[in-house]
Every structure is written in structure tokens, then in C-alpha cells.
């Protein structure tokens, strides 16, 4: 029997102003609230955002906006729109902006995306972090924050301020550079909960060789903060620490939070009082029914500095139509496994994605991270993989990686046809972890590098 996610009572209070009794939140209540907030957001954007005013929103008749499905009549917003002129999205003066986040392009060229947040927008994030952590932690717990937190308003700083509201002690740390040092901090501070990037937490869990227990630590909970978490990473962390591992679906564009798993670990419970989600056909833009996989699109409901309407995330997922085992009426989204542009065609037929490589290669004990590059020569594709292993596993890693690659059907089939050549596996023996960055298959087969992103 699972405990119902506390996010349900939090959303009830946001909608009605009162926590109420269990069971008082209904889909009708949520959807009426979302419709009201959508109208407010569209009116705000049409009146104050130069971008949306020029995107036909100013001519959209709000009096005919009667159901949530009417939102489908509005145009989609893309990452390229944000890159071209982010200031055109602003609905307030720049004096009201408290935090600007710049997201660099993953490609070799291209403008960065810039996101603007007011103090009120940041409070929405802190409120979600606070109540989201009640799913995971208890008063008196200590949480190590393995995210950037040096600047006021950064994700680590917002998270630290949020958990203090529930009497959880934050231990700010930042990005992991030296796993041994971070493990010493964990031991000294007696932390029992971690919040971090999947590959960084994996490096901590696998730092000690099998059978060694130098560090006296006891981890109860791990929160992996990203858009996609390979199942293989979750399994290895659980195996090493015997802890619960929660996935937090997040993008900066969402205001750093979109959904969080409950104790049933059966999909993300969505932040429905602040965001409205749709799933669309990525090729046609047509909205899809619940249960069908497509591209995740969201609209902000409560953000006032830089609202986003029907923003295309590039993530592939689906809304799960069945009820959650925890008993909530909140919608659930299946874990993101791929990106719309993350599946690349191989010369011998079939598609290869970063998520496929993730599940195969992270299942190899000792692998902490890897990079993949596709090139071509003499009419055949060539796949080069570079791996960062844990200490004392370097010698056997290349053979294990080669075997794991050939366990992937599309790779084995292309190799069998002579259409794909596997380059010798490269191993990075440097003790310092690679800096967190977008992870993607780099496609060098055509002029100009095409990169298929995967943030983990």
C-alpha cells in the first residue's frame, strides 16, 4: 500500500486556498482552474509580450476559449523562437527580473536560450521544491545538493531555501569534481539524501571498489534531477546503496520543475497547478490522446515574467491513462526515454538513439559516463565510443563495452551487413569527472555537426 503523493493536497490548496480533506480534489476542479489560468496567461501574453502579440494571440477570441482543447488552436512555441529574441517574450519590465538563466546551445554554432524569472516566478519554484520534497524527505533529514548553488536564485540555492521550510537541513555542495572528496563530505555531514545529476550520483555510488567500505555513509533517498534518467543508472545506484531513487522531470523552461515520482515509482506526477501539459505528434503538431507517445508540450499557468505558451520540449513521452497505485487523481507522465531529434538513421537501416546506448552501456559495471560519435568512411558508418570508468576497472572495460554494443540489435544487424564499423573503445583514465553537459550522439557524417541531445 503506497502513501498518496502529498502533491495532491498541495495542488488542492493552490487551487482553492485551503488544504481541505483527502479526496476533495477532482479532475473537474483541476481542469476548471487550468482553464481559468490559461485564459489569464493568454491575455497577459497577448497584451504585453511582443512575441505573442505578433503570433496571433492578440486576435484570439478569449470569449470562445471554453475548453482546454481550444488551446490547440494556438501556435506552438519552439526553442528557436526563444533563441532569436528572448526579450520579446517578457511581460514585465526588466527591472522586475531577478534571475536570468542562459542555456548554451549544444551544437558548434547557434545562439543560447535565455530565460527570465521574477521574484514571484522563483517563489513558484521554491514552493514546488518544498512540497515535492515532502514526498521524499522528513524533518531532520540532511540533503546534499549536488547542483550549482553559488549564485542567488540558482537551482541549488532555490532548493536549499525550499527544504529549510520543512525542517530539512540542506548541505550545499555544487557539481562533483572529486568523488572521494564528496564522499568525505557525505560522511562528515552524515547526509542521508542526495539531489543531483544522474551520472554524478552514479560516480559517487560506484567510487569504492566492490567489497570496500571506507566511507561510513547511509543513504536513504536519491533524487535525480533531469529530463531523462536511464533505468540502468537507477538500478546501479539502488544496488550500491540500497536506497530509494526518485526521478524529478525538470527543464529550466518549466521553471526548473515539471513532475516528480511518488513512492510507487510509476511515472511523474505533474505540476498541474502551474503547468498544463499536452502530447503532440512531433511531425504534424496535432494533439494526441492519452496513452499515445509523442512530444511533450507545456504551457505555464502562473508565471508572469516570461510565460510560455505551448512550448515544445523535444522530449518524447506519454500521459499514462491508468490510475497511479498511490491513489492520486493527478495525471502521470511516463519517464522520458528519447528526444524527438535523438534517433538517427544508420546506413544499413534502423535507428540508434542515446537512450538505447544508455541502457546498454550504463549496465556495464564500472562505467561512469561515455561519449558516442557517428562518422562515415568508404560507404559505412563508424561508431566511436569513449568511456570514463570507475577506478580499478579500466583494463576490462573496452571488451565489456564492445560486447554491450553488439547486444543492441540495430548495431549488431548493421555490423553484420558491413554497414557499421565499431571503432576501438577509448578509455579516459583521468581521475576528475567530466563536467556535466548535454549528452548526445554526435553525427559527423554530413557537413556540419548534427548533435542529438540528451541531458542527464
Automatic annotation (TrEMBL):
Residues covered by the AMP-dependent synthetase/ligase domain: 105-298
Entries under NCBIfam families matching the protein: DVU1553_fam_AMP (NF045666)
PANTHER family: BLR5969 PROTEIN
Protein name as it appears in the record: AMP-dependent synthetase
Amino acid at each position: 500500500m503506497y502513501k498518496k503523493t502529498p502533491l495532491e493536497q498541495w495542488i488542492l490548496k493552490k487551487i482553492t486556498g485551503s488544504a481541505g480533506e483527502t479526496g476533495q480534489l477532482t479532475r473537474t476542479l483541476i481542469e476548471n482552474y487550468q482553464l481559468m489560468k490559461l485564459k489569464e496567461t493568454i491575455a497577459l501574453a497577448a497584451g504585453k509580450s511582443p512575441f505573442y502579440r505578433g503570433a496571433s494571440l492578440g486576435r484570439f477570441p478569449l470569449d470562445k476559449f471554453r475548453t482546454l482543447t481550444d488551446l490547440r488552436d494556438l501556435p506552438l512555441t519552439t526553442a528557436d523562437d526563444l533563441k532569436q529574441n528572448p526579450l520579446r517574450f517578457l511581460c514585465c519590465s526588466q527591472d522586475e527580473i531577478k534571475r536570468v538563466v542562459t542555456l548554451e546551445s549544444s551544437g558548434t554554432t547557434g545562439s543560447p536560450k535565455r530565460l527570465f524569472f521574477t521574484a514571484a516566478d522563483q517563489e513558484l519554484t521554491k514552493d514546488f521544491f518544498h512540497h515535492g520534497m515532502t514526498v521524499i524527505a522528513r524533518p531532520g533529514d540532511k540533503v546534499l545538493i549536488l547542483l550549482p548553488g553559488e549564485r542567488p536564485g540558482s537551482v541549488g540555492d532555490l532548493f536549499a531555501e525550499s527544504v529549510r521550510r520543512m525542517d530539512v537541513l540542506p548541505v550545499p555542495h555544487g557539481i562533483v569534481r572529486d568523488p572521494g572528496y564528496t564522499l568525505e563530505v557525505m560522511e562528515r555531514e552524515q547526509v542521508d539524501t542526495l539531489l543531483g545529476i544522474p551520472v554524478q550520483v552514479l560516480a559517487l555510488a560506484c567510487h569504492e571498489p566492490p567489497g570496500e567500505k571506507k566511507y561510513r555513509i547511509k543513504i536513504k533517498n536519491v533524487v535525480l534531477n533531469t529530463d531523462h534518467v536511464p533505468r540502468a543508472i537507477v538500478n546501479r545506484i539502488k544496488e550500491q546503496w540500497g536506497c530509494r531513487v526518485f526521478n524529478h522531470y525538470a527543464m529550466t523552461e518549466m521553471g526548473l520543475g515539471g513532475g516528480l515520482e511518488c513512492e510507487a515509482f510509476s511515472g511523474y506526477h505533474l505540476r498541474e497547478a502551474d503547468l498544463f501539459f499536452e502530447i503532440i505528434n512531433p511531425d504534424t503538431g496535432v494533439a494526441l490522446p492519452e496513452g499515445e507517445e509523442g512530444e511533450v508540450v507545456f504551457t505555464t499557468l502562473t508565471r508572469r515574467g516570461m510565460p510560455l505558451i505551448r512550448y515544445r520540449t523535444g522530449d518524447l513521452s506519454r500521459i499514462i491513462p491508468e490510475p497511479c497505485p498511490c491513489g492520486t487523481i493527478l495525471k502521470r507522465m511516463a519517464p522520458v526515454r528519447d528526444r524527438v531529434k535523438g534517433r538517427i538513421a544508420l546506413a544499413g537501416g534502423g535507428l540508434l538513439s542515446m537512450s538505447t546506448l544508455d541502457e546498454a552501456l550504463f549496465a556495464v559495471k564500472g562505467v561512469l559516463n561515455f561519449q558516442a560519435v557517428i562518422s562515415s568512411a568508404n560507404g559505412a558508418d563508424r561508431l566511436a565510443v569513449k568511456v570514463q570508468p570507475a577506478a580499478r576497472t579500466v583494463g576490462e572495460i573496452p571488451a565489456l563495452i564492445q560486447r554491450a554494443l553488439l547486444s543492441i540489435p540495430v548495431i549488431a544487424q548493421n555490423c553484420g551487413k558491413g554497414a557499421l564499423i565499431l571503432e576501438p573503445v577509448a578509455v579516459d583514465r583521468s581521475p576528475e569527472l567530466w563536467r556535466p553537459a548535454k549528452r548526445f550522439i554526435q553525427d559527423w557524417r554530413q557537413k556540419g555537426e548534427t548533435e542529438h541531445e540528451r541531458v542527464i
